[in-house]
């Protein structure tokens, strides 16, 4: 099997379900490995811009599209009845109950500028619930993975979130929109939040930030504006590492707001971010 065994006891899911999870994990790992190699080794020195998304800052490169085509082609060949949702346009309704949620390059601007914090993010959902997540960060030499109920791992080593510090000593990760109006609102939230915490980091890849919470490199991470492909794999990995994920109080992570943190820190940050209006422009 590709994933280490969960050390906390026997699996409770039916054997047929476990076999499906094993298959999905193996496929996600291989697809992420192939896409990561394509992106790492095939990046042209004069990387061009194929199109723009919501603003001139948010670029779509030829490699984004090539990576998604590689991933979807690989998975469709092996599981033709599955559905797909991808950042670069893949949208297929399947009949198997499994849907793949794909970000072929999470951290596109980092990739464009040859900064190392970019990743390939692949999640598999079963009947609407994320059950497998893989985030490959080739320039960090790391691959994060999680299967529902089995824990989270980085390069085969089990990972856990960092024990919660006081809020004043917490290191938070966040991200900013490509839309100028939303960035201005996010700056206002930061203006109030920064004096209350240790510091803020902005890495540029939501999937990596969520995995950094999972392995204790960040105490918490929040961001407005994440799409399903940005967070599906990383949020599962964070949860399987013992962190909580959510949005506004009582809501799941979403485009409105995504938060990941240890349970104690989550309980402090969620109402604070809600009060500060981190969920609206």
From TrEMBL:
InterPro entries linked to this entry: IMPase, Inositol_monoP_metal-BS, Inositol_monophosphatase-like, Inositol_monophosphatase_CS
The superkingdom of the source organism is: Bacteria
What positions does the entry give for Mg(2+) binding?
Answer: 87, 103, 106, 230
Query: GO: which molecular function terms?
Result: histidinol-phosphatase activity; inositol monophosphate 1-phosphatase activity; metal ion binding
The pathway entry for this protein reads as: Amino-acid biosynthesis; L-histidine biosynthesis; L-histidine from 5-phospho-alpha-D-ribose 1-diphosphate: step 8/9
Say if the entry is tagged with keyword NAD.
no
What cofactor does this protein call for? Mg(2+)
Q: Which Gene3D superfamilies match?
A: 3.40.190.80, Fructose-1,6-Bisphosphatase, subunit A, domain 1
Which EC number(s) does the record attach to this protein?
3.1.3.25
Q: Entry's Pfam families?
A: Inositol_P
Keywords of this protein's UniProt record, alphabetized? Hydrolase, Magnesium, Metal-binding
Reactions catalysed, as given in the entry: a myo-inositol phosphate + H2O = myo-inositol + phosphate; L-histidinol phosphate + H2O = L-histidinol + phosphate
Give the top-level enzyme category.
hydrolase
For the keyword Transmembrane helix, the answer is no
Single biological process term from Gene Ontology: inositol metabolic process
What does the record give as the function of this protein? Answer: Catalyzes the dephosphorylation of histidinol-phosphate to histidinol, the direct precursor of histidine.
Q: Which family does it belong to?
A: Belongs to the inositol monophosphatase superfamily.
Q: What is this protein called?
A: Inositol-1-monophosphatase
- Organism, as annotated: Streptomyces tubercidicus
The gene name reads suhB
């Amino acid at each position: 099997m590709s994933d280490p065994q969960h050390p906390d006891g026997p699996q409770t899911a039916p054997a047929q379900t476990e076999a499906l999870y094993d298959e999905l994990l193996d496929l996600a790992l291989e697809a992420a490995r192939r896409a990561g190699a394509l992106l790492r080794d095939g990046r042209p020195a004069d990387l061009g811009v194929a199109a723009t998304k919501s603003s001139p800052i948010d670029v779509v490169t030829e490699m984004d599209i090539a990576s998604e085509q590689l991933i979807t082609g690989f998975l469709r060949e092996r599981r033709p009845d599955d559905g797909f949702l991808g950042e670069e346009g893949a949208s297929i309704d399947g009949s198997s109950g499994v849907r793949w949620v794909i970000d072929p390059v999470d951290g596109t601007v980092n990739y464009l500028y040859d900064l190392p914090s970019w990743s390939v993010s692949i999640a598999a959902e079963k009947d609407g619930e994320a059950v497998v997540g893989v985030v490959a960060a080739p320039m960090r030499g790391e691959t994060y993975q999680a299967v529902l109920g089995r824990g989270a791992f980085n390069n085969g080593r089990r990972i856990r979130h960092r024990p919660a510090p006081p809020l004043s000593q917490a290191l938070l990760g966040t991200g900013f929109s490509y839309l100028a109006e939303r960035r201005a609102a996010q700056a206002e939230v930061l203006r109030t939040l920064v004096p209350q915490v240790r510091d803020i980091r902005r890495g540029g890849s939501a999937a990596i930030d969520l995995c950094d919470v999972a392995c204790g490199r960040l105490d918490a991470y929040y961001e407005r504006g994440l799409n399903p492909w940005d967070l599906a794999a990383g949020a599962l990995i964070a949860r399987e590492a013992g962190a909580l994920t959510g949005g506004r109080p009582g809501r799941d992570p979403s485009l409105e707001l995504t938060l990941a943190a240890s349970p104690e820190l989550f309980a402090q940050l969620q109402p604070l971010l809600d009060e500060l209006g981190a969920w609206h422009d």
